[in-house]
Amino acid sequence: NAGVTQTPKFRILKIGQSMTLQCTQDMNHNYMYWYRQDPGMGLKLIYYSVGAGITDKGEVPNGYNVSRSTTEDFPLRLELAAPSQTSVYFCASRGALTYEQYFGPGTRLTVT
Amino acid sequence: GENVEQHPSTLSVQEGDSAVIKCTYSDSASNYFPWYKQELGKRPQLIIDIRSNVGEKKDQRIAVTLNKTAKHFSLHITETQPEDSAVYFCAAFIGGSSNTGKLIFGQGTTLQVKP
User: A49-72 pLDDT, tens per residue?
Assistant: First the structure.
């Protein structure tokens, strides 16, 4: 199993541009999460999903959108990038019967 | 709102000494408390966790204690080694039911183990 994979690893965006961060898991996990981690800080939950077709806001959802059309994929969309969205983005997943979350390798995003 | 406070923000110890990191949480219904280790440029890795029905859990040099009444939990690392140097995060599972809950993370502790 590859576990949780994320693409791209790095990206530089100009202010106002849009992009989609991809996240895929091959563990058949129901639950998937998107976090952002600012330098020297903890992880803040952006959005999460409890299954295909179901998503909900986390602590810091403004400026982001998500969709969950399949169990495997949970893309995060930035519509109008702002410098405040410069961060490292982690995707995570977990199974229905456990609490343990498995993290992807992260995407480092810079908005200038 | 729901939050998790973590202290200290930085911790420096000599190799072989013990290190203790403490966290408090706000939601009395929280029932799962993991600890993650994050090395520079890497993803968070789960190192130990504890459920609310247990007061202490140990795994070799790492232990976690939980005081539900006081709503705080701690990570204890004994006989520290240079490879223990990393950022450590605590978290609390908010929302009760495993079906709808989410993790709230502390701010992190940078542990430096000096040889």
Answer: 999 999 999 999 999 999 999 999
